[in-house]
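Exercise 7.
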Amino acid sequence: MRDGRGDDTEPDPDPVRFSDELETWLKSPGPKTIGGLGEQFAEKGFAVILLLLMILPATPLPTGGITHALEIIAMVVALQMVLGRRDLWLPKRWRARELGTTFTGKAAPFIVRRIRTFERISRVRGKRIMESDLVLRLCGLAIGGLAVAAFLAPPFSGLDTLPSLGAVVIALAIILDDLALAGVGFGIGVGGIALIMTIGAALVRFITGLF
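Solution. The predicted structure, written as tokens, is:
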């Protein structure tokens, strides 16, 4: 109905936030597998899968020793981004791998809250750049490199947290079309790698000094 101001259109409803979509999927019945995640978020499937794979190593929560497996899968997914694949390929066993009760029960609420924090401070910046093939490949390369750094971090040191967080922020930047957020993710990741190298070198000097 016209309101007398010459405009008979209604305002668009608020867009559904990614965090709400993710929370709805996590709470829906049925197994939560990596393959199912990719199918649910097909348009941004690569980024969403990388986000979920790397966010567990980026949290201070107990992981039950599954972070290395998740990081290896993340490397494979990131490599496909670098190669410019449009459809995700994973071995059948990996696609059927469930995220587990540690993730869906304990980690998921923490993860959704953190994503909402980023959604509040993020806005669409450089959408066309973020959707370009070259930038997506570079983001895949960065996330893959950070997954490798997290994998190689000394066990039980907590040094895998920053590289993993950098990967998570870059993946979120792809999902939210925020070029500035991608820059933040790169910065966090580089800082994490520098920390691993610095502390690693100190450990090597300490160990060699004992002999």
